[in-house]
Amino acid sequence: MKTRQQPLFLLLLFFFAFGFLLSNNYRDYIYSNGIYDFGIADAGANLFVVPILSIFMFISQPKLDTTTVVLRVTFFYSIAEIASIIFPMLGVFDIADLIAYLVGANLIMFTIKRLKVVNRLPLR
Q: Is 120 a member of any domain?
């Protein structure tokens, strides 16, 4: 394993573990106690979908720059969410999910820019 990819694997593990805990434990706790949390329990797992898949793409396609990777993943999930309006078999449309995808995209961009984890084209 390259030493440059070790922080990416640590970030992947962190985002995966945090998303898993938020989706399984936090959601059950909020629902069972009737606590209003502004929809975080519903869209919580979607916060970490974009960062997790972006990190997978950083590792598998090293020639792409960070902005392109994050925009592709965010665009795909946003289109799938919007398509659920027309095709109900894809799921139920929820604006909170779209917002969670955008927040997740900002989260991974901020994390990468702040920690300087990915050595690619400069972030602007």
A: no
Residue range(s) defining the domain that contains residue 60:
6-115
Classify residue 59: in a domain, yes or no. Answer: yes
Query: Cβ(111)–Cβ(51) under 8 Å?
Result: yes
Indicate the DSSP class of residue 95.
Answer: H
CB atoms within 10 A of CB 28: 11
Nearest CA to 96 among 38, 51, 26? Answer: 38
Read off the pTM: 0.83
pLDDT in tens, the chain (124 residues): 455 577 888 889 999 999 898 888 888 898 899 888 888 888 888 899 999 999 998 888 878 888 889 999 999 999 999 999 999 888 888 898 999 999 999 999 998 888 776 655 444 4
